[in-house]
Amino acid sequence: FRDGSALTPQPRNNIMADAGALEPQHHDHMVAFLRLMRFKRHQHLQTIEASFSDLRESRLTEPTFTSDEVADMLEGLSSVVKGDVEDELINASHTNALLLRQIFTQAEKWHLKLQIDTASLEDRRLLDEIAQFERDQFSMAPTGSKIKKLDPLDAAASPARMQAEIERLTGLNKTLGEQQAEADSKAAAAAKEIAALKTQLAEAQTAAQDVVAAAADATPTLLKPDPPALQAAADTGSCTAELAEAKHEILRLTSELETTQKELELKFSQTAQFGNMRKMIESKNEQIKELRLQLKGAS
């Protein structure tokens, strides 16, 4: 019962080996069931023997009988014995059905599905092996041996295999939770970094615009025919070169910031949260398109 959720008929090996492979507790319960059936069989034989005794004591009082009297006695005895045997067979079938129901009830509590090989129930070789197993057990079993009862399933500890599976799934669930938390943390950090880079980019663009504006304001002054300015032409040329170099540096920094921003946006777009958000936005866009089409059709 512990090795799978469905048991298929096993190969017809020696039943003695199969019985020996049972756990000691199950082996004892099998012996106890055979002992019960032996007791009931003995009682039934005593009942049949009592029927013959009643016939001898009540009817066989005369030294001679006619054929009709003998036929009547045999018919009455046959009816009594047939009734006793039928009652015993019905009781035995009900007992076996009750035993199967107990086994199935225990299996269903663990979500197991059992199967029965009814064809093997009439296999003479297997039946003979069971008979031999019964003779061996009761020829060497001590009298008065006590059979330990099974613990209730609700109070019993989980089987080793099921407990191990529960522990494995619990550990896997914990690992997945930790990975999810780590992914969420990385996504939040990436979002913060993208926001910071956007701020830096905006500041750099503003500074570049201020430099360009200042250069534009200074250009007309430099072009005026001012003698002092002409005397400082060399200094102005130097400032213009520095201004051009500053512009190139700003452009380089702007390009690096844009590249870094694109890389971070690419990393962020590969996260599960961004994928889910993107799917939601695409779904909303499709809905908006459909509503627009409906509005155009209505108009």
Global outline:
rod-shaped
Distance between the termini: 70 Å
Report helical residue fraction: over 70%
Largest sheet: none
pLDDT < 50 stretches? 1-13, 15-20, 143-147, 153-157
Q: Can you walk me through this structure?
A:
With 299 residues, the chain is mainly α. It is built from eight helices and no strands. Helix 2 runs antiparallel to helix 3. The longest helix is centred in the middle third of the chain and has 64 residues, at 160-223. It starts with 14 loop residues before the first helix and ends with a helix.
Features:
mainly alpha, 8 helices, 299 residues, single chain
Topology:
Elements: H1 15-20, H2 24-58, H3 67-109, H4 124-140, H5 160-223, H6 227-231, H7 233-269, H8 272-298
Helix pairs in contact: 2-3, 5-7
How is this structure best summarized?
The chain has 299 residues and is mostly helical. It contains 8 helices and no strands.
